[in-house]
Amino acid sequence: MKKGILLASALIAGMFAGSSAQAAGRDYISIVGSSTVYPFSTVVAEQFGKTTNFRTPKIESTGTGGGFKLFCSGVGVQYPDITNASRAIKQSEYDSCQSNGVKDIVEIKIGYDGIVFANSKKSAPLKLTRKDIFLALAKNVPDPKGGDKLVPNPYKTWKDIDPALPNEKIEVLGPPPTSGTRDAFVELTMETGAKSFPFIHDMEKKDKNMFKATTQTVREDGVYIEAGENDNLIVQKLEANPHAVGIFGFSFLDQNADMIQGSLIENESPTFENIASGKYPVSRPLFFYVKKAHVDVIPGIKEYLAEFTSDKAWGNEGYLADKGMIPMDKTESEHFAEQAKDLKPLTMKQDK
Amino acid sequence: MDQPATNPAIDKVNRGLKRRYRAERRFRLCGATAVFAALCFLFILFFSIVSSGYKAFQKTFIQIDVFFDPAEFTNENLATANFPALIKASMSSRFPEVTARRDKKDLYYLISPGASFQLMKLIKNNPALIGQKERIWVSANDDVDMLLKGNIDRTRPESERRINDKQLAWLDTLAGEGKIKKTFNMAFFTLGDSREPEQAGIWGATCGSFYTLLITLSLSFPIGVAAAVYLEEFAPKNRWTDIIEVNINNLAAVPSIVYGLLGLAVFINFFGMPRSTPVVGGLVLTLMTLPIIIIASRASLKSVPPSIREAALGIGASKMQMVAHHVLPLALPGMLTGTIIGMAHALGETAPLLMVGMVAFIVDIPQGFTDPATVLPVQIYLWSDSPERAFMEKTSAAIMVLLVFLFLMNAVAIFLRKRFEIKW
Q: How close, in Å, is residue B114 to chain A by CA atoms?
């Protein structure tokens, strides 16, 4: 018995000693952030780990907001070095970084991601406009009888919105509000779609809060189904229900082109070329942010940046493009590669 | 005494007999149906997992003739040589008619990007190969693997397949020459996670689970048993021990995510332990399994008859001797069973580990308690969310492995119970 107790206490002591020794120095890069960037940064990390003598970075998928929260908690080995984001850093996040001593942040844009509206191959492809999407999914829409009045969304079928669309129940599977994809989708389609109504367009200047509420509130009467963060699940559900439409990132369409098809938006289909050239309207930039104070403390950060910003990774023919990321054009990628090399910190005015 | 059955009570019983038999049959039928339904669900679960996962235990390889060109190995450090170029050269020499840039890219795509690491290892182990031509089996790309396993339908129009017509033709040529084979997928059991499905394995997650459970076991078993022995044998029965008992029972029912939040606040934010490591994961799971072990241990201590205690005390043993020499050995099988079931519970747990950062992409196999690691159920969760189709069968295969571990642990628990349990 005594021996057992001794052994156990020795083990516990050893563990704590081990953990404090480990906290003193970390020999691998710690990355957190967006689940949209996760499939891309993991490819780079793996390549980096296998071709260099550094250890493979650890990448947690915490979501964009969760990533910034961890990233901005402070400077020191227990905090992550890099955070991935599927949108640019917000002023509030920047301020929280500053107040926690994370002064110099380097922003690197890595490419674009298209958001697609897709349905099963078993039914006909949809031809949508952003206005259609707004009318189909907003909680309150302009009165179909005319006038500048908002009424609870009366549309039940696609045909109600536009006679050219199929006579099928509107049923959309999409990400929950915690997701960066949802933020981007609301901003890029619903907001733009809503602005095609002049009175909503005017509202933006007059009453910002009202404008936000009108354009960003998704209906809650069962038409929009929150299908969780798992895009694979949405794809499988679309396959089972040919009448439903799903919202997810381009790479999932790319991988499942035999089962699902992307809807045309403003007459543009979501193909690699159309998203890259900017013709397809619903695409958003992807970023990662580097804590400059960590660069010389944690081994390998500079080399990781070099790998990520190399042409064989994020270039037109690079391995990230093979995984479904939409690369930037030449001048833009050169600009950000330069920024990664010089570690030029982001400057945002700080309101105290 | 041959008296006909005129007793009114017996008559009444006889009249109701049929109805009672019927009721009993119905009751039994209900029970049998419930068992049948449960078995059906179990069967459906196993069938869906096994049918979508069994193919993952096989892997496609392509044979190529690689010439280890001495011109590539000029640098002192052999690992810096351009191994992908060697593979490309070998593919080009096999299909010399492919010249267009686009086509070449499609051709090289057939071979997994991991093949160059295989060559690197080969050269590291045997530098004498430089300058020689070798016939090597390298792993095929995951899309090729999916095609050969029938998960990509080759009758679909070209634009809907991830393997185009030209690639199909090349693969058919190679298959005709016997240069494509499917063998047992060793990589799945020996490698860590990867974003290339053909190189992804569960060994990293298995090691992570092992280290995590080791911490959990070495903490929760002694603490749990000590707590149970004290509460059962030594503690006075008063209001305080009642409160403690109620609270332990309550803790056993607390959702596991709560322990994750507690672990995040205490171990990571307060004690500053490193995120994503088996130490923190193990501590969190210790908190979670402790109540289970305490409850099971107390139950098994209770089942030791008081006569044994009294006999020990009667011949002059001290209370501690009574517990250590007589009660504990008799209660131990039950305690171990409870512990193993608690461990099995901990092995399948994901939610609390989400909070302490064990949901992470980790390629390197963890070497100790403070290396970043994931565990098996988390690996399943991560793979289920990957876009590549090949990860779907990997997910099911990993579930199968996890189930095998759970069965083994439960089997050990049953064995211990059967072997050592003493019926009073």
A: 10
> Average of pLDDT values for A192-215?
84
Residues in chain A: 352
Q: Give the model's pLDDT for residue B188.
A: 93
The total of structural domains in chain B comes to: 2
Nearest CA in chain A to B391: A232
ipTM over 0.90: no
Query: Above pLDDT 90, what percent of chain B?
Result: 54
Least Cα separation, residue A60 to chain B (angstroms):
4
Q: Name the residue range of residue B176's domain.
A: 55-185
B231 and B328 co-located in one domain: yes
Q: What is the pLDDT of residue A12?
A: 54
- DSSP label of A138: B
More confident residue, B400 or A143: B400
> What is the DSSP track for B325-381?
IIIHHHHHHHHHHHHHHHHHHHHT--HHHHHTT--EE--SPP-STTS----HHHHHH
Classify each residue of B189-203 as buried b or exposed e, where b means 16 or more C-beta atoms within 10 Å of its C-beta.
eebbbbbbbbbbbbe
Domains in chain A (CATH in brackets) are 26-112+284-342 (3.40.190.10), 114-283 (3.40.190.10)
Render B97-142 in DSSP notation, one character per residue: T--SHHHHHHHHHTB-TTHHHHHHHHHHH-GGGTT-EEEEEEEBPH
Same domain, B207 and B322: yes
Is there a contact between B386 and A232 if contact means CB atoms under 8 Å apart? yes
Domain match, B79 and B163 both: yes
The CATH number of the domain holding residue B355 is: 1.10.3720.10
Q: How confident is the model at residue A11 (pLDDT cuts 50, 70, 90)?
A: low
Nearest CB to B222 within list A8, A61, A121: A8
> Would B383 be classed as within a structural domain?
yes
B321 shares a domain with B215: yes
Cβ-Cβ pairs closer than 8 A, A with B, add up to: 113
**Residue B2 counted as domain residue:** no
Is B161–A8 a contact, with Cβ atoms under 8 angstroms apart? Answer: no
Co-location of B276 and B372 in the same domain: yes
Six token digits for residue B418 = 């059967």
Establish if B235 belongs to a structural domain. yes
Query: pLDDT at position A19, please?
Result: 46
A55 contacts in chain B (CB < 8 Å): 364
Is the residue at B49 inside a domain?
Answer: no
A18/B370 Cβ within 8 A: yes
Q: Do B387 and B322 fall within a single domain?
A: yes
pLDDT top residue among B2 and B196: B196
Domain identity same for B215 and B176 = no
Q: Which of B72, B151, B76, B155 is nearest to B116 (CA)?
A: B72
Residue A59: which of B113, B215, B361 has the nearest Cβ? B361
Report the DSSP beta bridge partners of residue A112.
A285, A326
Q: Is A22–B274 a contact, with Cβ atoms under 8 angstroms apart?
A: yes
State pLDDT tens for residues A91-133: 989 999 999 999 899 999 999 988 899 999 888 888 989 989 9
C-alpha pair distances (Å), B418 with each of A57, A85, B133, B407: 47, 55, 60, 16
- Structure tokens belonging to residue B279: 């130490």
**pLDDT class of A18 with cuts at 50, 70, 90:** very low
pLDDT at A349: 65
Model confidence at A21: pLDDT above 70: no
What residues of chain B lie within 8 A of the CB of A252, using their CB?
Answer: 387
Last residue of one domain, picked from the residues B185, B212, B247: B185
* A316 — pLDDT class (breaks 50, 70, 90): confident
Statement to judge: residues B142 and B210 lie in one domain: no
CA distances from B278 to A217, A301, B219 (A): 42, 24, 13
Share of chain B above pLDDT 70, in %: 98
- In this complex, do A12 and B152 lie within 8 Å of one another by their Cβ atoms? no
pLDDT value for A348: 76
Q: Does position A3 have pLDDT exceeding 70, yes or no?
A: no
